[in-house]
Amino acid sequence: MSNIDFDLKKVAHYDDLARKVVFGYDQLFIMALSLLAEKQNETANVLIVGCGTGMELITFGNHMTNWKLTGVDPSEEMIKISRAKINDYGLSNRVTLHHGFIESLLEAKEYDAATLIFVLRFIPDDRRKLLLFQNIAKRLRSGAKLIIVDQYGDPSIDGFQYMSKAWKNFMKLGGTPTELVNKIMVQAIEQNFVTERELQNLLLEAGFEKITRFYNSFVHGGWVVQKK
After folding, report:
1. How far apart are CA 144 and CA 64, in angstroms?
2. Whole-prediction pTM value?
3. Residue 191 has pLDDT above 90, yes or no
4. Which of 82, 160, 186, 228 is packed most tightly, with the most Cβ within 10 A?
């Protein structure tokens, strides 16, 4: 797989736009941490797949001072932003960044937990989604939890169409310009939605179990699963 880079302007305003597009965007990272907080009194190695602008790295690093974090992202610009935030918050001694894909990490089962937040939408087909889940599983200890958040749904059913229209209204009511909302809707459709059943099947095949949905908003969902 080749490196991925985002437009510099998009990267700079990614989090601001996400807050208008995704209900409870900032709270999602606290929710994710809450699902992993059983390890709050332990030393833990946590893998952040698609670390982006560093939201998990900063949230987890600030709250869990005995955790070591590894962030992986194929976008050089995203890595630069994450590194700047890590330095600003004084977390560089506990955070390691890798520019590239998860395949570049050793397969040793050394991670106690992992997150995959707003990454699946960029994976074009189920085979590569499965490969991503398998690569994550290879690096997790047995019993480790994986947090997934992304868009999902079945565009062929009426309920999905209703939720999509409501999501569009949500963005407009939140102050997002109509032109940008329309562009986001087109991009969302082009990024291929996965149904919850398809997601569950991929996770089971990759070696995960105990799949539980903890978040749902319009066309976005969040799940916590456990490595067998």
Report:
1. 17
2. 0.92
3. no
4. 82
